[in-house]
Fold this sequence. Notes:
The complex is a heterodimer of chains A (194) and B (471). Chain A is 30% helix and 15% strand. By secondary structure, chain A is α/β, with parallel strands linked by helices. In chain A, strands 1-6-7-8 form a four-stranded antiparallel β-sheet, with no helix packed on it. Chain A has a four-stranded parallel β-sheet with strand order 2-3-4-5. The relative contact order of chain A is 0.17. Chain B has a five-stranded parallel β-sheet. In chain B, helix 2 packs across helix 5, helix 6 (182-193) packs parallel to helix 8 (215-223) and helix 13 runs parallel beside helix 16 (450-459). Chain B is globular. The model of chain B has no long low-confidence stretch (mean pLDDT 97).
Amino acid sequence: MKPFENVKSIVTPLDMVNVDTDQxxxxxxxxxxQKSGFGKFxxxxxxxxxxxxxxxxxxxxxxxxxxxxxxxxxxxxGCGSSREHAVWALDDYGFSVIISxxxxxxxxxxxxxxxxxxxxxxxxxxxxxxxETNSVEVDLENQIIKTSSEDxxxxxxxxxxxxxxxxxxxxxxxxxxxxxxxxxxxKSIIPSVL
Amino acid sequence: MGKTLFEKIWESHIVVEKQxxxxxxxxxxxxxxxxxxxxxxDGLRMNDRKVRRPDLTIATMDxxxxxxxxxxxxxxxxxxxxxxTLENNCKDFGIKLFDINSPNQGIVHVIGPxxxxxxxxxxxxxxxxxxxxxxxxxxxxxxxxxxxVEHVLASQTLWLEKPKTFEVRVEGKRKxxxxxxxxxxxxxxxxxxxxxxxTGTVIEYxxxxxxxxxxxxxxxxCNMSIEGGARxxxxxxxxxTFDYLRNREYTPKNYESLVNSWRDDLKTDSDxxxxxxxxxxxxxxxxxxxxxTNPGMTCDVDEPIPSPDEFSNGDPxxxxxxEKALEYMDLKPGTMIEDIKIDRVFIxxxxxxxxxxxxxxxxxxxxxxxxxxxxxxxxxxxxxxxxQAEEMGLxxxxxxxxxxxxxxxxxxxxxxxxxxxxxxxxxASTSNRNFEGRQGNGGRTHLxxxxxxxxxxxxxxxxxxxxxDLN
Lengths: 194, 471
C-alpha cells in the first residue's frame, strides 16, 4: 500500500447525511474483477442523468471542485453495503481524505486498507468545512487540518496512523504471528467444515 | 463482573492481544462469493500466498446469477466473467464451491445455516454486510471488505477493534403473529435507533419477543443489524437453535458434545452490563412500511407519511434528507400508506426468502390473482428452499396467482442481475435496503414483510394485513 502523504487542496462539500455505498458506487459497476478504474463510476447516478449527460447541479460536476482531494460530507458516510469498490472509486477519482461527523464501520475500516484517511469531526466543524472555499491542508503526522483561518486538530488511533504513514502490508505483519495462529488452531474446538 | 455473550465469543477467539491496538481474532468460517472476492484472490497471487485453511472456507455464487432458466447461456458477459473467475479461483486455491448448478447453491447467508456450516459460538466472516444474519445462531458474524477477505484467506485471522455492546430488548407478545412479523420488529427497531444507532457496536437481541421467534425469523432480525449501523447482531442459542442445526449436511460429527458445551457457555451472564440499551415493546406494534430512501424512514401501515419536520425532530440535516427522499420516492407527506399504489412485488433476499417466509406469503396468495397492474416475483433464498417449497406445492400457489417462480439468488435485492426495476417503478420488496437506485436506477423501494408484499401484490396497493384472516 502507498504511504499516505499530506494533502493540500480545495474541499468538495457534499452536504448530505447517510450517503450509502450504493450511491458512492452503484451496483452495475461491481462486476469488474480488478481494483482499478472505478473513479469514472464514482457517484455515477448523481453525476449523470439517464442519458449519461452531466448533471450540472451535482457538486462533483462543479468546476471549482476540479482536482479536489478532500471530500467533506454529512453524518454516517459510507453506510450500507460492505463493497470496498466504494473506497477504490473515491481513491481512483482522486480523493485521499474524507471528512465527516461519523462513518459507517465497514467503510471506515476499508479506507485504511487503501491509504485513504477518514477524519471524524464534531458536526459543527464539519458544517464550517462544508462552507470552506479556500485550500485546506491535511497534516496526518501532526493531526491538524489547516484552513485559511484556523488549525483544526483531529483524533486518530495511533495504530491506524502508523499503517497509513508507513503504508504497511497488513498480511505480512500478521504472518509474524504464525506460531500464535498455529497454537490457537491446535486448541480450537470448532471443527473443519469438510 | 459477568460477561456478555459477545465478550465471551470475542475473548475465546483472541490470537494476539496488544495494548491500545486491535486484537488479532481467529476466524472459524469464511464464506466467499463472486463479487467481493476476485481482487482478494488476485492479491494472493501477486504475493505468492496460498489460502491458509481451505477447509474453513466455502464459496457460492449468488449476487449476479440469473434467476431464470439456468440451462441457457448467461447474456451478461461481465457477470459471466465474474462467475468464471470464482470457479477458477476456487479450483486454483482448493476451495469448496457450490456453483450455479449445485443443489446447494443459494444466497450465502441462506445456505450457511441450512448446510450446518454456521455454528454457535463461532466467528464467521464474508465480504458482504448481511453476514450479520448468522448471528441468529449465536455466532459472531461480521461483514468485511475485500482487503479483509484477502487477509482472512491468507491468515484465517483479522485485526479487529473490539466493538462496544448494545442490548436491544424486545418485550411482550405480538397479538397477531402472522400479520406482525420479525421484519416488522427489526424495522421498528431501526426506525427508533436510527440507521447509525448501532455504529461501533454488536447488538445482542434479547427478551421474550426474540426467544418466541423461529430460527427463520431470528435470521431476519439479525440480518438487518447492519441497517441499524451495527457491526453484528447476536441472539443467544437455545434448543431451537440446536435443533435447527442437527443433522444438516455439514453439521460436525461431534455435534452433541459441542451442543453440551454451548448450552452452558453461550449466554450473557445475569450480572453482565451493556454499553448501550434500547427496549422495544411489541404488544401493539403494526406492520411496517418504509417510505423513504433509508430503512430508518419507516412508519406503521396505518399511519400517514410524516412531513420532513415531523420526521427530523428539529435536525436540519435529517429534514433535508427526508425532503430529498420524498422527492425521489414521489410521495407527499400526509398520504396514507394504504393509498400508495405499487407496480412490482419482490419476495426474496437474504432477509426474507426462507421457507417460512414463502409459506406465510402463500397463505395470502392462495386462490387469488395478482392485481392486473402489478408484476410479482418470488426468488427463493436457496435452491434447497426452492425444492422444499415445491415439495409443499407452494410454487403452484404462487404461479396460479401469476407470480413468477424463479431460481435462487440475490436478484432484485440489489439488481446486479437482469432483475431490476425500471425508472419510476414502485416496488413492495421483502429485501433490506431502500436506497436510491438500489433495485434499479430510478426505482422506488418500499421495505415490507413477505405477508405485506403478498397482500400488496393481490390488491395493487399496500394493505394492513391485520385486517385479513390469516389463520
